[in-house]
Amino acid sequence: MSDGKLSVMLEPSNSAAARWARLTDRELVWCLRFHQAVQQRWAVRLFAVVSRLGDGVFWYGLMAALLLTEGAAAIPVVSRMLLAGAVCLALYKWLKAKTTRPRPCARHQRISPRVAPLDEYSFPSGHTLHATTFTLIALYFYPLLAWLLLPFATLIALSRVALGLHYPSDVLAGALLGAGLATLAVQSPFTQI
Asked: What are the angstrom distances between the C-alpha of 63 and each of 89, 144, 170, 175?
């Protein structure tokens, strides 16, 4: 067995860390390109507003609107959204603490954050995680809301890279985790708080 193979076998965590670093470096190039492509003031403003609404205002407004328009029939849906939102929060905070991946704006001087980040680390995108989860739960019960929720959730995901806050894999991970949590939430027998 050669020394190179032996060192790889003895240090698997370094190998995983090296792969993570290489992925981050590759994605940093795409972050820079996307960040530079979105220079028009209206586009930056749009992404900033969407990002701010994605902090929670839009989703709480949606839940309130469902309760006001649908009454008691919306309670199981809103309950699922609230419970899933709490799980999302705990999951993404735990993952960020474990991965400690620096944001693109912290890694490259030509990527400036266009809005203030809510926390220090980037993996996964909590905005995308919540947007995907809330959108899929709401659409399961109210598919006619697709015209509003799908474009909004897509803009949230795009905004995270455009604003210099996330790598594409952060957004992808948030979307995949969100889809999984939404699936669990709609299949849950949980119906009321």
From this structure: 17, 15, 26, 20
Whether pTM exceeds 0.85: no
Question: What domains appear along the chain, each with residue ranges and CATH number?
Answer: 3-187 (1.10.606.20)
Q: What is the pLDDT along the chain (193 residues), one digit of tens a residue?
A: 344 443 334 444 567 777 777 877 788 888 787 777 777 888 888 888 998 898 889 999 999 999 999 999 999 999 999 999 999 999 999 999 988 888 887 777 777 777 777 778 888 999 999 999 999 999 999 999 999 999 999 999 999 888 888 889 999 999 999 999 999 999 877 544 4
